[in-house]
Amino acid sequence: MPGIPPTRFVYLGPEGTFAEQALRTIPAAERGSRTPARSVPEALDAVRHDDADAALVPLENSIGGAVGVTFDEIVDGAPLMIAREVVLPVEFVLAARPGRSLTEIRTVAAHPQASTQCRGWLREQLPNATVVDVLSNGAAAAAAAAGEQDAAICAPIGVTRQRLAVLAEKIADHGDAVTRFVLVTRPSSPPPPTGDDVTSLAVFIAHDRVGALLAVLMELAVRGVNLTRIESRPTGEALGRYVFFLDCTGHVADDRVGEALRGLRRICADVRFLGSYPRHRWGVAPHERPVPAPPGLSDADYADATAWLARLRAGELS
Amino acid sequence: MPGIPPTRFVYLGPEGTFAEQALRTIPAAERGSRTPARSVPEALDAVRHDDADAALVPLENSIGGAVGVTFDEIVDGAPLMIAREVVLPVEFVLAARPGRSLTEIRTVAAHPQASTQCRGWLREQLPNATVVDVLSNGAAAAAAAAGEQDAAICAPIGVTRQRLAVLAEKIADHGDAVTRFVLVTRPSSPPPPTGDDVTSLAVFIAHDRVGALLAVLMELAVRGVNLTRIESRPTGEALGRYVFFLDCTGHVADDRVGEALRGLRRICADVRFLGSYPRHRWGVAPHERPVPAPPGLSDADYADATAWLARLRAGELS
Amino acid sequence: MPGIPPTRFVYLGPEGTFAEQALRTIPAAERGSRTPARSVPEALDAVRHDDADAALVPLENSIGGAVGVTFDEIVDGAPLMIAREVVLPVEFVLAARPGRSLTEIRTVAAHPQASTQCRGWLREQLPNATVVDVLSNGAAAAAAAAGEQDAAICAPIGVTRQRLAVLAEKIADHGDAVTRFVLVTRPSSPPPPTGDDVTSLAVFIAHDRVGALLAVLMELAVRGVNLTRIESRPTGEALGRYVFFLDCTGHVADDRVGEALRGLRRICADVRFLGSYPRHRWGVAPHERPVPAPPGLSDADYADATAWLARLRAGELS
Amino acid sequence: MPGIPPTRFVYLGPEGTFAEQALRTIPAAERGSRTPARSVPEALDAVRHDDADAALVPLENSIGGAVGVTFDEIVDGAPLMIAREVVLPVEFVLAARPGRSLTEIRTVAAHPQASTQCRGWLREQLPNATVVDVLSNGAAAAAAAAGEQDAAICAPIGVTRQRLAVLAEKIADHGDAVTRFVLVTRPSSPPPPTGDDVTSLAVFIAHDRVGALLAVLMELAVRGVNLTRIESRPTGEALGRYVFFLDCTGHVADDRVGEALRGLRRICADVRFLGSYPRHRWGVAPHERPVPAPPGLSDADYADATAWLARLRAGELS
Q1: Nearest residue on chain C to A218, judged by CA atoms?
Q2: 10 Å Cβ neighbour count for B28?
Q3: Which residues of D touch C119 (CB under 8 A)?
Q4: A182 in the same domain as A59
Q5: pLDDT mean for each 10 residues of chain C (318 residues)
Q6: What is the CATH number of the domain that holds D64?
Q7: Which residues carry the site feature described as Essential for prephenate dehydratase activity (chains A, B, C, D) (predicted)?
């Protein structure tokens, strides 16, 4: 973030979940304060009310339960901005108090979504164990540490926090799942473009236009702006409009993204800009992955076309 | 559903939640057996393994926590089919044991997402009460009935089941929210077209095609097929493809939907047909809302064009 | 035209044709010199070599024989600009020396395309007359005046020039045909926008791009720019490219046309701007036909979107 | 052509022009009768009235003067069909009576468009010669043969017919120009597909639809049908509609072309099918250029998609 870097961070709690683990990959958060929030709205409100400088909340995938509404909550209320994304592999572990072995495990504390994602592993490795639902991955680790249950399905950070021992690593049935978190701040200038950025938008479309989404995508396609994510959100029919959350390639400072945004502004009932920030690729540093603009769509191409148009308007054909 | 109607139903449990309430709006389910499942995957697996005939699971909105992955789970494994949708208004109530008054309430049991959706009401009406997280709306009602907490935020069905009294109705901050559930069965012939149907699809797109989503939407738009919902789902980058879940207007038996489906089949890496079923409009019976096909796109228009083409191929111009 | 108005005009000759008639509808031409040229290229070369200030040549319809190549000739060579269009109804007359009556006519001088366009009338009214081909409508009138043939099919201006008498008016079989002429000058600032303008372009597309024309039309459609004319021109296959001549609604000074032009510049192998000029509607004065910009596409809408984008880039969300 | 091959041919006359030369490349015409017509309408009417079986008329480029209206004339009246195309390089020669040398030439007979296309060569090689306009390339050759002028610009066939000698070959300024002729018959079954065919259409669009041409192109693009030629034709404004002449890749018997045609039939005010016939590539035999259908758009792909749709409708998901 430009200007003063944030020092007071909130994240979707409780402690010991993937959200905390994601937050701690950010150097400024490692140095600053880190406070868990009970819910995504609570985390975002803390930023809105200046009780915190930035909130780390999940955006995609189902770990932690609160995803899905995050975009709704960002849009609903005083403006907020996404300043950064963190993509984290979902690596569930089975953990227990030190000294326990896998064969002794009779009960496993787990968030329902965590046990669901590991159900193949549980069926094979612990066919006789009972899964006990708890409210979060952090609570699962705490229950194992307190001896309430024999073991826990939790995030690696829960193991560290609760001084547990790992009985089995990477027990999720789909080994390549990831969760995507975003760091949300009050509005300010977006971070500078890196050449591989994401721009997030909320686009509102009037109810009665046939092909309205097609028109939105054409505005993007004509400028070579790709979508990496799209989600329509249900709104009450009485409201008579649709909202789409879009993640696009490129940065608001890029000419082609700017022109696409202006186009959406002109044709849509409303457009909310939610931020431009570096794309996070797991294990790939930004400087290792220069992503050239598509042919004809670089800032230089835009500058050339603008200069050419100025010549035409001045009567200088060539 | 054509053929033998289902008699054994599962639903996302526990008892006393919106899912059970939605299921009981279906006459056949009212007459048949109704078994709660611990998770969406468990509910779907019961159908896949013929332990049940149909599963009622949430598809949109966040009540109950398990939404969002429902489509993933339908697609992942032996084929299933959506045979029906049920759209339910989200009507949270504050309930307590009979005889209690609002002023006495010091603790409120609630699923975290339920308390989040009612946080404005809680702040105004019960500013000093403590919210205690529980694992479901059904568990909240049970906790109030058992006297563990003073009151519960729950669904109307939880009040009935636990013989509670309603202290306040419609306490959600957004009064017009709805949850959409679907009834999932093993594959069979879709229910007949009603003139106002939804067709659900999972569309897989190869990673490296620019504008691939635009191409998908053009296949639909050219046949006058509208989208009512779209969601991209994250896949591991290693997989190198994107999946989109689409809800379209129309029925697989309609010529225009059939032609659009054939077009998607030809251009996409994969297409999974997930069902065609009557659109559920809350409070509107199907016969009250005839929806004419767009100009040029009725089955009669298709028949006319097909006959014309046959004449051309036979050398009969006119 | 801004700057010094043209005083030396050439037109596709010979004298006494529709081209001269069209030229004389322009007040400046009525006051200036008017010289016939033997061909469209000769007329354009006179402007290119500064032997004339402006050339009036046909662009559409087939009267006079030279149409069709006009755009080719404008594009091929030093830049020229279309400064004005003149649309003229095609009103062929049958004319003869004064005193002749229709029943006496045995031979009719006519350009082959003129007699073709009047063949229904000739069959009915002069079934026994012989049509004698001549090289132009002007030559037909001259042949009748010289007594070489009994009558001529010609333009009204040919009647005046050769002091003939009209035997029959409006004898073309299609009464509503028009010919479109353009006034071509050396490059200068286009005439100011009137709110109902035409912009002419030549767009070159690389051979191997599938859907390239669709991409061109999308650039226009996204900015609400309509096409009123399109023509692909054959190029040798060895050249490996296609050229399209487009007439679009709007003026190069309009924001939406400017943005569309910049888009074409970026995606096409080459774009030649050929002029922006008031649309000529026969019998309708410009001030009687205000044409509002499509919703969201006025210059004010563009200004609003540009200001909004500047706010986003500055971090001012609202 | 299927059925009885044509034996009576007409062509745009007079004798000794490129049209006759093009006709004689067709074996059946070499064996049958060949009659010149005074104009394109006259040639087409001969076929309509069964005075001839087939008419060879120019469609593109400007040699002979009558092009451009050919499509209009095909559409206007009883249905006709394009059964074949012939593409001929434009090879103008300078010819004179045997024994003459270039240095003796003082006058050159030429059709105005022919002399226009050779004006660079004339300026360099015969700067002092006078060009005398005549009505056709055939008339030019005849004038040279009769000794009325010293030489003629004409087609190679004019040299043969009039027993002239060639003084200079390939004198057109643009060496790679071609003229495209079509052979027009009464309606019958189109010739069988070769894998590299052209389909010609006239598409009528209602006046008041914004983006109507874009909709037409989308119908084609979605089925992978490319355009090789497009031309809008002026219609009187009173008619309130536009007509576009399109040449598309593929054959009416191809599934993808058939589906695109049916789509156009459904959305356009009117569609006139004008024929499917092998694409003529100069100097390339059809069997040397197999052109595979685009991915997903072969007849086999269509058959696969149709079978898949049938399975879906029967409730067989997989």
Answers
A1: C222
A2: 15
A3: 39, 41
A4: yes
A5: 77 89 94 93 94 92 55 86 90 95 95 86 94 92 96 94 95 81 93 91 72 83 84 58 83 92 89 92 57 74 87 82
A6: 3.40.190.10
A7: 179
